[in-house]
Amino acid sequence: MDKDERSLDLAEAREGLPTGELHQPTEAEIKARDKRNIAIALAVVAFIALVFATTMLRLSQNLPQGGAS
């Protein structure tokens, strides 16, 4: 296969072209997506809380002990 044949094959490929068709999700797909989105949101919030708690703990360990100078 030479270069011209390959470019012709790529030009005829319809995989990435928009067709105007839209996928209408079913009720089950919508519920599954909503559950997945809630799980992701909770995981992100838990991660942020963990990073915050770790940061506060490490910062508190660096504070000078007592008021001695």
What features would you describe in this structure?
The protein has a domain at about 25-60. The radius of gyration is 27 Å and the shape is elongated. It contains two helices and no strands. The chain starts with a helix and ends in an 8-residue tail after the last helix. It is about 65% helix and about 0% strand. About 0% of the residues are buried. It is mainly alpha-helical and about 70 residues long.
Write the layout of secondary structure elements.
Blueprint: H1 3-12, H2 27-61
In brief:
With 69 residues, the protein is mainly α.
The overall strand count is: 0
Helix content: 55-70%
| Coarse shape | elongated
Q: DSSP helix count?
A: 2
The SSE order reads HH
Distance between the termini: 81 Å
- The portion of residues forming beta strands comes to under 5%
From the helix content, strand content and strand pairing, which structural class follows? mainly alpha
Radius of gyration: 27 Å
The largest pleated sheet is described as: none
Low-confidence stretches: none
Mean pLDDT across all residues, rounded? 83
Region (Disordered): 1-23
Protein name: Protoheme IX farnesyltransferase
Biased composition (Basic and acidic residues): 1-15
Keywords: Membrane, Transmembrane, Transmembrane helix
